[in-house]
Specification:
154 residues, alpha/beta, Collagenase (Catalytic Domain), five-stranded mixed beta sheet, 5 helices, 5 strands, 18% strand, globular
């Protein structure tokens, strides 16, 4: 199970997490922290952690680099959260203000863009990347598959 800790419309994040779990064949329990920040905060995070001095929609901070399943205490004793009975997978920082501006410019649905940013970030936490065109296409297709399973998009 993918557990999501956030203060913002938790039910849809849970649906996306369940859809990701099924799509990615995740076994065991992981926990993901989702925080929301301002444009100034995400710009500072982006600059401090990636050396990129600009705002962005979402940042992913994975705690794990190598994966083996199941995600449990036996396989991840140093990353296991006893209280939540889950492996700490990583954290996500989402800038709703940036997404709202981009949605207006791109004529997209703001809330769906927030959920896509979360889904995108979740895939990064599970090791997906988009450094090449092929990886980008694969990752985008996974995002769509997860969002469709969760009932966010058709």
């Amino acid at each position: 199970m993918i557990k999501v800790r956030t203060r913002y419309n938790k039910s849809n994040f849970k649906k996306l997490a369940a859809a990701a779990e099924e799509t990615l064949n995740i076994t065991g329990n992981v926990i993901v922290d989702v925080d929301f920040c301002s444009c100034e905060e995400i710009r500072a995070l982006n600059n401090d952690t990636r050396g990129i001095d600009r705002e962005t929609d979402v940042l992913s901070y994975p705690f794990l680099t190598n994966f083996s399943m199941p995600f449990d205490k036996e396989h991840y004793p140093d990353d296991y959260d006893e209280k939540n009975k889950a492996v700490a997978l990583g954290c996500v920082a989402i800038c709703r203000e940036f997404i709202k501006k981009a949605a207006k410019e791109d004529s997209t649905v703001y809330i769906n863009d927030v959920y896509r940013a979360f889904t995108h970030s979740l895939l990064h936490l599970f090791g997906y990347d988009h450094a090449t065109d092929e990886q980008y296409t694969q990752m985008h297709n996974k995002e769509d598959e997860i969002m469709k399973k969760a009932g966010i998009i058709k």
